[in-house]
Write a structure and sequence with these properties.
The chain has 314 residues and is an alpha/beta fold. Helix content is 47%, strand content 14%. The strands form two sheets. A seven-stranded mixed β-sheet has the order 3-2-1-4-8-6-9, with helices on both faces.
C-alpha cells in the first residue's frame, strides 16, 4: 500500500511544508511520493517549486490557471499511490510529519475516505484586517472528529483528506467549478450518492492562509456564485440540500416566501454590512445574514435571467 501526497498551489510559499513531508519519504514505508500542482503561479514561485524537485518530489504545471478542481484531478492522474492524500498549500503541521502520516495509516482499512480536520491558531491575528476569516473558521470549521462524524458529509473538507485512488477515480472533482468554493461539497455529495462512508479523525492541520477581510468577502461571493450554479445543475436537489446548511436555510426562507425580502435586503444594505464586516469586529450573526441574503439575491437574479453559470451582483 502506497500513499501519494498531492498539493495544488498558486503563488503560495510551501517550501517548509514540502521539506517537512519530504524528509519522511523512505522513513515511512507507505509514504511514496509528493506531487505539487503549480496552477499558473508567477515565475518567482515557479522557481521555488522547481527547487523542490527530486528525491520523491514531482512538479506538474499549468501555464493557464485551471482552478483547484481541475488541478486536483490532474494530480490524481499523475499519482501512482493506492491512496491520495490531498492537502491545501496554506497549512502548518502540528507535531511531526511522521506522526501525522502514521495517524492516517492506522485508519486505512476502516474507511476509504478519511478526513483529518482543520484547526486555527488559538490566538487571533494581530492584524484586525484578518479577523473575519479566523473568526468564521474557528466558529464553523474547527470541530472535533466526534462532532464531525455525526454529520460526516456536511462537515467534509478537502483541506486535509486521504482517499483511496479507486474511489476517487469514480467521483473526481467537478471541473466546471473554475473559481473558489464548494468543490468539496459536491465531492461529498457524490460520495454520499455512491454509498461511500467518510471517517473523520483528529489529525488536524492548522490553516495559516488567512486572507484580509476584504479578500475573504470577495471569496464568499465567488463561492456563492458556484453554489447557485450547482443548485441549478444538481438533479436531486433535496438530497443535495441535506448536506449543506446554507441550502437548508434557503429552503426554509423560500418555503415561507421570504426569498425576495432577503434579496432586496441584501441589495439595500450590502455596503453597510460589508463596512461592518471589514472591521473584523462584527458579530457572527451578521456574517450569516450577509451570506444568506446574498445567496437569495443570486437566486432571484438567476431565476429572472434564466441562465446557469456565474452571476454578477453589483
Amino acid at each position: 500500500m502506497k500513499i501519494s501526497l498531492l498539493i495544488p498551489v498558486c503563488n503560495y510559499d510551501l517550501i517548509a511544508l514540502v521539506h517537512s513531508m519530504k524528509s519522511e519519504i523512505g522513513k515511512v514505508p507507505e509514504f511514496h511520493e509528493i506531487i505539487i500542482g503549480n496552477d499558473a503561479s508567477s515565475q518567482e514561485f515557479t522557481d521555488k517549486y522547481r527547487s523542490l524537485e527530486g528525491d520523491g518530489v514531482k512538479i506538474i504545471s499549468s501555464k493557464k490557471n485551471i482552478g483547484r478542481a481541475a488541478m486536483r484531478n490532474k494530480l490524481a492522474l499523475e499519482a501512482t499511490g493506492d491512496y491520495l492524500l490531498f492537502l491545501d498549500a496554506d497549512l502548518m503541521l502540528i507535531g511531526t510529519a511522521e506522526a501525522f502520516l502514521k495517524k492516517y495509516i492506522k485508519k486505512i482499512g476502516k474507511a476509504q475516505v478519511i478526513n483529518g480536520g482543520i484547526k486555527y491558531s488559538e490566538s487571533p491575528p494581530n492584524d484586525p484586517d484578518r479577523l473575519l476569516r479566523w473568526k468564521y473558521g474557528k466558529w464553523r470549521e474547527q470541530r472535533k472528529a466526534s462532532e464531525r462524524n455525526k454529520r460526516p458529509y456536511t462537515d467534509f473538507s478537502t483541506f486535509n483528506i486521504l482517499i483511496a485512488k479507486s474511489v476517487f477515480s469514480k467521483v473526481r472533482f467537478y471541473e466546471e467549478l473554475k473559481q473558489y468554493g464548494y468543490e468539496d461539497t459536491l465531492l461529498s455529495f457524490q460520495l454520499k450518492n455512491a454509498g461511500i462512508n467518510i471517517l473523520h479523525i483528529d489529525n488536524n492541520l492548522i490553516h495559516e492562509g488567512i486572507e484580509s477581510n476584504r479578500e475573504y468577502l470577495d471569496k464568499v461571493k465567488l463561492s456563492l456564485e458556484n453554489l447557485s450554479m450547482l443548485y441549478d445543475r444538481v438533479t436531486d436537489k433535496k438530497r443535495f440540500c441535506g448536506i449543506l446548511t446554507t441550502l437548508r436555510h434557503y429552503n426554509i426562507i423560500r418555503s415561507v416566501r421570504a426569498k425576495l425580502i432577503f434579496a432586496k435586503f441584501f441589495i439595500k444594505f450590502k455596503r453597510k454590512m460589508e463596512l461592518k464586516l471589514e472591521t473584523g469586529k462584527s458579530p457572527n450573526w451578521l456574517f450569516v445574514l450577509y451570506r444568506m441574503s446574498m445567496f437569495c439575491a443570486f437566486r432571484e437574479i438567476h431565476k429572472r435571467k434564466k441562465v446557469s453559470g456565474n452571476i454578477l451582483i453589483i
